Each structure stands twice: as structure tokens, then as C-alpha cells.
Amino acid sequence: MDLVIFEENKPFVLEGLRDGEFDYIESASEVFEADFFRFIKARAYLDQLAETYPTPRKKEEVPFWFYVASNLSMRLHGVHAFDAFPMVVRCGGMLQAFGPKAGRKVVHPETNETTVVCEGFNQKNHYDRETPCDPDYLRKVAKDTDSGALMEWFNRDVVGVFRQHRAFDKEGLFIGDGSYLFVPDNPNYEGSVKMRFDEHNHPVTLEQYNRMTEAQKSRCQWKRCYKMVTLLHTNRKREFFVFVAVKVISGKVHESPVLYELVKQFVQAVGPGVIKRLILDRGFIDGEAISLCKKQYGIDVLIPIRSNMELYTDAMALFREPEVHWVECREPKEEEKEEPVRPKPKVILKREKKRQKKLQELKEQQPPPPPEKILVKTEAASIGEFRSWSSCTVPLSVVANREHYADGHTEIWFLIDTQEVQDPRQPRQQYHLRPSTEERYRQLKCFSDLTHFTSRAFSMVVNQVIFIMLAYDLLQIYLLSQGRKELNQKTLPRIRQQLLPSDNYIIVYWQNYYGLFSPFELIGFVVMLGEEARKKIAAKCRRIGRELNGLMQNPRPP
Fold first, then answer.
1. Which of 331, 398, 441, 486 is the most exposed place for a label (fewest CB within 10 A)?
2. Beta strand ranges found along 108-257 (DSSP E)
3. pTM for this model (two decimals)
4. Among residues 140, 133, 141, 161, which one has the least CA distance to residue 52?
């Protein structure tokens, strides 16, 4: 069975209703997910992603675009156990997006439970289908898909689809980073390792541990983990965040060579010129790799340097010279974000006002921070044509950031830039985009259950990570297309809250199109129709109602 995507065309549906014509009608209490699927299906995202998916199946009994859509739907609902797929189908938006041919809500004749009946994609079932495909099929495909091939698919084919749809900003800002994925202390998690971490979840080597005080040692813990290395695309205004590469590795593997390999893979997939600026933290210091990015790929790298490097010592000496020109840095104020026009009840507004007042009172009661913690002023300066880093064969600009504190002391830290620096404030502002990556990690871990793995098989771990990332990316692209870029910084629950309709809606289908109506709008339209049209609509509604209660011919036993 080939499912048909229904496109929104309300005027066309209204023309059909004027003659008493329509194909199907159903209620909808949620339109966010349905609109999302209509968007990615109509723009061929689903078909293109399915075309290159590394399927482990020789025979395609279920279209792979539907397999991809089912995985995406589960991730949008924060569900990762495939046993929950029937629930996701019932409460999600796939049926609304793909129309009644994908499935219809019916009442079970024995239990009186409202469920879903589907034609399915083959004739293997002895009972009426309650999902378009079996949850066990989804689980087996996910488990049998090679983890390496799946990550390569995301890093090569998925980003190729994004490139076709012009998902990459001309500014070309990309951020590389790594993060630990902690799992329960069970050695059956394939590929996981057990490591010692401090109270801030930073790994602690044996040498570092031996230098610690007893108090510091007591705060260390052994944890089992994986490591995830990613490449994130954004812009200066942080209007979107799109993951373009991801690699799940052992926690003990160093992330630096993995990240530069992801950069190479990305350039091979989409061509040179897309990444113009690569922002990294000091964990990715590698002179040869930075030189390669500049010479071979035309990518300018911005990265801080370590205090134990000779380059740091040289820079410190030069920036102490009196002729160095320092400019004061003022952090740009965050733009006020437009909130969707959705008035809040007076009781909520009153409660929020009371809460803000209480927070202000508590803030005023807090003792002021010590002078050594109060930042008074920040300055920046730059010097170009640094060539004292032997492993880096391209000229560097060094940006010094000098921070003045209320007690009189100053602190200096350095950024190196393979790009010629005209204004030292600009690289500093760009580097401050890097915490955005950490915030994305936090959101995915807290609100999308990134680390709540339902299986200990490595292939299933990778499947969960990849499809969470893919769902996140496509949602970002969808929100941009809808003019809702202000939501791209929000958490998934907040996005759903903002996009859910305030009222129930009725969907009317007619010739592969649909119209979305409020109950009052539809009733008001129908009562103004001629008698013949009203009779035809009434007769068809009665017939659909009878089908709803009697469509299941061979129901699955309760």
C-alpha cells in the first residue's frame, strides 16, 4: 500500500462541501505533529531520507519512508521503546498527516475501546491491524541496522538532503563539541566503559586523582558511559541549531581526531565552502588538523589555547608591550523575542507577578559577591602573523581577552584564529556561541531522554541518538519555514505547548486535500448550505459513524 500525503487546501475543500461532497471527516485535538509530517513529506524529506537509508532488509515489506516517519514520531513524543508505538500512533499526528488511508480510529466491538484500524502493507496478519506496521518490525530493523552505517548515513546522506533544501546559512558558522552519555553501571551496554569523574562530570586521570586532596577525591565517582562527538550549525543570532554530524564512541577515545574526521566527512558530503568558521574548545587543539582545515578545506578555526603551550608564553610577552591597542568589549544585549499571541489567564499572570516579586526579594537578601568575583570591564586586543607554533603551518592571529575585577586583579586568556582579525571583539563574540552547543546537549538529555536507552545493544543506542538528532534537526527546519524561529531555542515541551491549538478542530478530507475547521466554523458553514447539500453531508456522516463502530471485521482478542 502506498500512502498518500494530503495537502492543505481549505478553499478547495469548501467548494466540495458546497455540493455536499467530501471523502472523510475526523476530529483533531493536536495539529502540531500532523503539520510537521505534512511539511517533511510534501517537501520530499521523507522520501529522500528513506532512499539512502542503510536497510538491513533485502525485501521492503514496509516503505522505509514510513519507518523513518515512525521513528521520528516516537522521538517527538519522547518515547524510545518500540512497544509504545501503538500509543504514539493513536495520540500522534501521523494519521492526520497521511490521511484515512494510513489508518482510522474505530471502536473495538468487544472492549468499546477507541483504537486504530489500518490496512497495513502486507497480508500477513490474521487480525485487523491496529498500527500501519508492527512495532516488532520497527524494533528488528533498528537492531539489525549496522551502527557504523547508520552514523555514516546521518553524516553523509542526511546532510546531503539538507544541502539540497538549502538548510545551511551563508554565514557558515559551525561548532564542534563532545559530551559524555552516562548509562547505568551494567557491563552489558555494548561498547561502554567505566571511568572516574569529578563533581562536575569531568574525567579524572590517575595522575590527576593522585594530586587531589582527600576532600576532592571523596567527590569523585566511577560512572559508565559513552562519548558523543557532534558538529552543530547555527548563526550569530542563534535562530536555528542543526546537528550535521554525530559519532558515538567509547568514553576513553579522545574526541579531537574524531571531530576533525567528521569535518572531513561533511566537506566530502556537501562540498567546500559550507563551513566557513569552525569554533572549538581547547580540547581540540591540534596544529596539524587546524592547518589542514585552513589549507585544504578553506575553514577558519577559532579556538582557545592552553596555558602550558609555548604559544601562550610568547603571546603573554607580546601583549604586555605598551603599544598594544586594547578595545573595551560590551556584551551585546539579547534581542527581545516575540512571544506568540496567546493570552495567558489572569490567574497565571497574577501568580507569575507574585513569583517574580519573591525572587527579587530573595535576590536582594543575598550577600554581594566578593570583589574578586565582580567583573568590572573586559578588553580585547589582537596581534597577527604568529608563526611560533611549530605544528601549525598557517599564520595565526592571537586575540587576547583581558578581564578586570573589582579587587584590582586582571585575568588574560587567548584565542587563536586562522582568519586575519580586524576587530578583536568579533572573534570573542563568535566564541561565546559555543555554550549554545552545551545547551542543546542539556535539552536533548533532559527533554528528549537522549541517555535513557531502552536497550543495551550498541546498534539500538546509536539508533536512538541518531533519530533524536534527526527529529531535532527537522523540527528546527520546520519552525524556520513557519516563521517561528523564536521557538528554536526553546525546549521540546515548550515548543509543543506553543504550537498546540487552543481548541479542538475538525479535519475534512476531499480528493487528497484537507481543510482544518473549528467546530463552530464548520457548523456555521453547513447550516447555510442548500437542503440537498446538507442531506448529502448528513448521510455521509451517518455512514462514517457506522463504519467507525463496525469497521473491525476480525478484531484482535482483548
1. 331
2. 114-117, 173-183, 193-197, 221-234, 242-250
3. 0.78
4. 161
